[in-house]
Amino acid sequence: MQALAVHDLVKTYRNGNQALKGVTLEVPEGDFVALLGPNGAGKTTLIGIVTSMVNRTSGSVRVFGHDLLREPDVAKALIGVVPQEVNLNQFDTVHNIVTTAAGFYGVGPRAARRRAQECLEQLQLWDRRKDSARNLSGGMKRRLMIARALMHRPRLLILDEPTAGVDIEIRRSMWEFLAALNESGTTIILTTHYLEEAEQLCRHVAIIDHGRIIEHDRMSRVLRRLKEQVLLLNLRDSVAQAPQLTGFPVRVTGEHEIEVVVGEGHDLNDLFAALEQAGLHVLSMRNRSNRLEELFFRLTSRAPGARPTAAEVMP
Ligand code: ADP
């Protein structure tokens, strides 16, 4: 069963901006997916359409098999959303905020009170239930938005940058909470600017750029590719077929050119040894830029392939 099945989704805003150019994305039940992409890529638009905040131009969205246009109430009740901006009624109490949200989904008052206790305890806010939202710290407000999103027991939780600007301790406890929530069966999609966060939590990663999904793969495979270097070698002699270089995948890309992948665990010395063994004379060498690396470069403003420092990940 697909928790979310988006097919050929197109969004053209009134001013002619085409934010989504045919997005297809399937998220199986139980998955934990990171949606990454640079600013302006289309993440907010995609999430907006899935959560019924933005109208699509064309394409379809199904939530656990229910079409969002044909069965909007059923589909919406299956989704919980934690928006990027804090949008709590600052003068309302913590308890009231979550029980009111439950009411929107038709949860009765008694069930809502029981559920409020569960959710607020899970997010360490039960002691603060009588406080106004404005008296909470930034981290508590974010936790309250998660509690609010979980009141109707959604099977799919969508979080838009849940830990932006949140300090390290709160971020870690949120990671633990989300991992446990996913373990217990809730499918989770999150957008984040922290590669480390996606790496810690997510099984899959979808990367959107210029309104198109350019990558959707297992997190581990994407990370492995990020650690690879792809080199183009210009050879003195012409090559008809890919030479054997033990430990290095090779592809012929021109009469005198081959592409070699240097993966984790290998360095250039190993490559030169393998080239010598194969009797290949290299005239010049350059790095082939990789779309994914470039994207992460733009996302994180650091050298392609470099890992974030601890201070960047946990300010
Ligand atoms: P992201 O969340 O990845 O930063 P968005 O979905 O916000 O991307 O934006 C995708 C594209 O759509 C951008 O070019 C943005 O300028 C444009 N866009 C977003 N909202 C609107 C709007 N209300 N009207 C016109 N263009 C918009």
Polypeptide structure, described:
With 315 residues, the chain is of the alpha/beta class. It folds into two domains: 222 residues, P-loop containing nucleotide triphosphate hydrolases (Rossmann fold, 3-Layer(aba) Sandwich), CATH 3.40.50; 67 residues, Alpha-L RNA-binding motif (Alpha-Beta Plaits, 2-Layer Sandwich). Helices cover 34% and strands 27% of the residues. It is built from eleven helices and 14 strands. The strands form three sheets. A six-stranded mixed sheet has the order 6-7-8-3-9-10, with helices on both faces. The chain has a four-stranded antiparallel sheet with strand order 2-1-4-5. A hairpin with a 2-residue loop joins strand 4 and strand 5. Helix 3 crosses helix 4 and helix 4 crosses helix 5. The longest helix has 16 residues. The radius of gyration is 24 Å and the shape is elongated. The protein starts with a strand and ends with a helix. The C terminus is likely disordered. The protein binds adenosine-5'-diphosphate. Adenosine-5'-diphosphate (ADP) binds next to helix 1.
Summarize the structure.
This protein has two domains: about 220 residues, 3-Layer(aba) Sandwich (Rossmann fold); about 70 residues, Alpha-L RNA-binding motif (Alpha-Beta Plaits, 2-Layer Sandwich), CATH 3.30.70.1560.
* Head-to-tail CA distance between termini: 39 Å
Structural class: alpha/beta
User: Could you list the spans in which at least 5 consecutive residues all have pLDDT below 50?
Assistant: 300-315
CATH class categorisation of the largest domain: Alpha Beta
Portion of residues in beta strands equals 25-35%
Annotated CATH topology of the largest domain? Rossmann fold
CATH architecture of the largest domain: 3-Layer(aba) Sandwich
Helix content: 25-40%
What hetero molecules are bound to the protein chains?
adenosine-5'-diphosphate
Mean pLDDT: 88
Instruction: Let me know the largest β-sheet.
Output: 6 strands, mixed
- Please count the beta strands (DSSP E, at least 2 residues each): 14
Summed up, the domain count is 2
Oligomer: single chain
Return Rg in Å: 24 Å
Strand line-up in the sheet with most strands: 6-7-8-3-9-10
